[in-house]
Design goal:
Blueprint: E1 5-11, H1 18-27, E2 34-38, H2 46-51, E3 64-66, H3 76-89, E4 96-100, H4 107-112, E5 123-133, H5 134-138, H6 146-155, H7 165-175, E6 178-182, H8 189-202, E7 208-211, H9 219-222, E8 265-272, H10 278-292, E9 296-301, E10 308-315, E11 318-326, E12 334-341, H11 346-354
Parallel strand pairs: 1-4, 1-5, 2-3, 2-4, 5-6, 6-7
Antiparallel strand pairs: 8-12, 9-10, 9-12, 10-11
Length: 355
């Protein structure tokens, strides 16, 4: 059976920066062919804006689908399921699907829809990414423009839930696999750190909280989480079983279109020779990740006595390994890429991985 196509759900209030995050992702897609499902409705017309950063090798106009009939969690059966079925029926299937929800959508019903017959065998939820407006949440507002949220809610005739913003925010946090504290350029470093720590304590174990400005996250951090969220719904309890609506065209995004690269993140390579025990090394890697707040770790491991190289991929402390191909004439060494937020103690991490 072919591998399931991974899908990433991006949620968060109007103005949090979802569209900017997706635009940045497309501009730095590293050759992945990405299909987008955008839950826009009304006149906001995000697709033209998204396409500005989208070369044909990443996504064409046919790879962007707008669901404009209202909140995605209220129209799952009518809109989302047929859209997914059509996407999965194509001969030129995407490498990854990214779904930008309406800002007032509850993420849980959307994740639940991935268990729908005909979809469950073909696609899996790689992860749920909740984008938070760091400035607004620090100020206790959840969204930077409450009036815009209310206006969007009023436009949606299909909306069948009237959830207070505070409760919807709790639902978005409860469902997240990664929380992106965006707009950290509008916060002092101490404020951004304090908010990140608070969100970390309020979320499930294993949820990664990262800081970003202008939605600038490395693709290796954003995609490839491998969570399978549709099989983990019990842990993503809904605070309230109503719904909501809104969208994410950030008025102030366009003011910060300048070069705001990946200064908040860093990556480096650690090498060592052959490993004697694959299982013991995987546990060692998990311990190093926990002790140092590493977001991702991936690479190839040379196991003594084994002709095949061992591929190792870690998201947080969850480490997956498998043998993929013979080393052949290549150098038999262990080579790992470490990715995290800026400020990692590279020397200490290298020493711990080489111990």
């Amino acid at each position: 059976m072919p591998a399931k196509i991974p899908a990433t759900v991006v949620t968060g209030f109007l103005g949090a920066g979802k569209t900017t995050l997706i635009r940045h992702m497309l501009q730095n897609a590293q050759g992945k062919k990405i299909a987008l499902i955008i839950n826009e409705f009304g006149d906001l017309g995000v697709d033209g804006d998204i396409l500005k950063g989208c070369g044909d090798e990443v996504c064409t106009e046919d790879d962007i689908v707008e669901l404009s009939n209202g909140c995605i969690c209220c129209t799952v059966a009518d809109d989302f399921i047929p859209t997914m079925e059509a996407l999965l029926a194509r001969t030129d299937k995407p490498d990854h699907i990214v779904i930008e929800t309406s800002g007032l959508a509850l993420p849980q019903p959307l994740v639940r829809a991935f268990n729908w017959p005909g979809i469950s065998t073909k696609v899996t939820v790689d992860g749920v990414v909740t984008v938070v407006d760091g400035r607004a949440v620090h100020d206790g507002q959840f969204a930077h423009n409450i009036a815009a949220v209310d206006a969007q809610r009023a436009q949606d005739e299909n909306l069948d839930h009237e959830t207070p913003l505070s409760e919807l925010f709790e639902d978005q946090i409860a469902c997240a696999d990664m929380i992106v504290v965006n707009k950290t350029d509008l916060l002092a470093a101490s404020e951004a750190d304090a908010l990140s720590s608070k969100l970390k304590t309020e979320s499930r174990d294993g949820v990664q909280v990262v800081k970003a400005a202008m939605g600038a996250l490395p693709v290796d951090v954003l995609l490839g989480q491998g969570i399978g969220a549709e099989g983990d719904l019990a842990a993503r309890h809904e605070v309230h079983h109503h719904h909501h609506h809104d969208d994410d065209h950030d008025e102030d995004d366009h003011d910060h279109e300048h070069a705001h690269g990946h200064d908040e993140f860093e990556s480096f390579i650690v090498t060592r020779g052959e490993i004697a025990d694959a299982n013991a090394f995987a546990q060692q890697v998990a311990d190093v990740i926990r002790a140092n707040g590493i977001l991702r770790l991936k690479g190839f491991v040379a196991i003594a006595g084994k002709p095949m190289r061992l591929t190792l991929q870690a998201v947080g402390p969850r480490v997956d390994t498998y043998f993929d191909q013979p080393f052949g004439d290549a150098l038999r060494e262990t080579r790992l890429v470490v990715i995290g937020e800026a400020g990692l103690d590279q020397a200490a991490i290298a020493a711990a991985l080489q111990a």
